[in-house]
Amino acid sequence: MNYDFSDQEFALFVQLQEVMQSYVEANDPEKGDVASIDRITRGALARLGETPYLNLGLASQSGLHGTLTLMGAMEVLAGLSPSLFLSVEMSTRVFGRIVQTWGDEAQKEKWLAPLLSGKMIGALGLSEDAMNVDNEPLKTTGVVDGDVVVVNGHKQYVINGPTADWLAVAGVMEGKGAMFLVEKNAKGLVMENRLATLGYDGAAICNIRLEDCRIPANQVMVPVGGKESLALIRMWENQVILGASIGLMKSAFESAKNHAKTHKSGGKPVIAYQEVGFKLSEMLTLVQTSQLFAYRAAWTAEDAPKEAESITLCAKVFCTEAAEQVAANAMQILSGAGFLSGNVVERAYRCAKYGQIAGTSTEIARVKIGDGALGARVS
Amino acid sequence: MDFAFTKEQLMFKKEVIRFAKKEIVPRVQEHDLNKEFDFESFRKLGEFGILGLHFPEELGGGGADVITTVLAGEALGEAGVDGGLTLALGAHTFLCADTLFRHATDEQRKKYIPKLASGEWIGCMGLTEPDAGSDVASMKTIAEKKGDNYVLNGSKIFITNGPIADVAVIYAKTNPELKHAGISAFIVEKGTPGFSSGPNIIKMGVRTSQTSELFLNNCEIPAGNLLGKEGDGFNMSMQTVEWDRSALLAPFVGASTFMLKRCAEYAKGRVQFGRSIGQFQAVKHKLANIRIFAEAARSLVYRIAWCKDQGRPLNHLEAAVAKLFVGDWSMAPANDAVVLHGGYGYCHEYDMERIFRDSRLAPIGGGTSDIQKMIISKLI
Lengths: 379, 380
Description:
Chain A is an alpha+beta fold. In chain A, 55% of the residues lie in helices and 16% in strands. Chain A is globular.
């Protein structure tokens, strides 16, 4: 047992903070049109490419734990900018892991190598009109036509959709699950308008349509394991959401704490009042509990894979609900200053809700955890 | 970071669960109903080695690390041992015996620790007073030096094991002018003239543990029964906090695993509207909440234990966070477990009712949740 990050891990977190803080301050990744988001994301990826960050959980880094180190690092980046974090992670960890897990050598060379050096943006098209991939079969299909596969379907809420160089589109081919890799500007790939969202306003999100989109057969990956492959993708998404949750809750907490120590009322800093001090105590309890939960979930990914899915679901439910509570209380402490647009706490409050909806939703997660307790296999 | 237990630790946990299910759990309900301490179980805990797990072998202990010691507490809860017995164990081993082990002379250690580790003697600690709860410094019990003796006067309240203890660690002011720095700790044995206990106080939960007032009425003890130096008492009481926040919280974590298993069994067997209630999402939701609590609390509790094993000074912030979380969040899963069992959950026959009452102590004992919030808000 060991509850400390190593010196090397700490050094990485400090490096990330240094490298990215100035970049975030100079570029404000929390807003902008598609063109500026595209530029800011690519700039960030280039910077991150010079650190071990992009490799974490994808390519082994000597001395660093894969997903566990990644969770600590994600917390840093998500704390600085939730939107930039989401763009980077949906590309690197979700798209990247799809290629790493189901791609052949040539496919890895083509997509993974540029991804890990920060030279490419990827996206995943998974969700369809039915929303719930657990209950509804995917309707996106690929039909083999000689050396070509013809893809048709509709995907919604594709994060990085407008900026991605490559999109992995989940669907069905010859009765089996398949991932269709579609290049930006491919004929038959139709980008719908960018979607406005409650939070993560600096992430570029859109729906896409595939209309007789013809892709070479070597741009198809066939995930093994059928439905379980979808569960695995959900777990990667859940890990990203865990990182986002602890990052944004920590930055909201810090912001509220600083405010409570400096803002005076009745001649003393407001933290001296129990209504404020006790709120901060409850918030910190949620922050620390969430951090440990997220780290442990990340640790199971490599060290206790049998538990990984269920612990990750438990952590995801807890941390995302905690994030909303912490953000809400942080705003209460900042009061008027917190309600103004553009501050860390207001941003965290708007972003927090996403965590409970995205990946495995809180409701589906609880059902699965309950199934696990009843002895059913969780998947 | 590494969240794994060693194979030995996990094997030991299994052994404790097996032992407790066979030797202790069958009598738990009866004793809870009668509000009686189970001396037989306590003796068996001693025989198994749980009462002195972390003490050195030469003093009759098991030489175990803190994590293993905490695991034993979790295992007892997981096996279905009631919160009263685990509380009695906690007061005995951590609040009394451990304080003696750390601060008594070699001679005193040899006298007390083997007897306490085996369960031959039962220990308690007297800190809280009617007018001095978390505000320890306002205690009124006084110890006056008189020749080679100290004379103790005052009273203590809510003392776990009070009516049954053979030896007590009693905190008293040697200098009433001072606040914390005026507090000292003493060894007081049962039968010392002027030392007596009140009747068992009937409590909402943890009913098999015996709780009482202690009275010190011109109670004269040898000066050698002072632990450490005069004025050291407050720091000694603070050192027990490490155990309070790990070993004493662990049974609550174990109890939630016990509840989860019981609830799952019940949900599978209970049929309503033509199907087992486990198939209803609202029931799964409750099962999930119990599991989520157990997993969250586990990491917090073992963090304190691991730090202690590393020899680090207690991180009061992390300790308060663990106590606050387990305290405030353990009641909801206990409530869920009762409700999931419906009418049966409200009846004594099903253990959920007992655990629900036992859980209510978590945000109160060893410093209420509000006190933890005071600590945290000061430290941040």
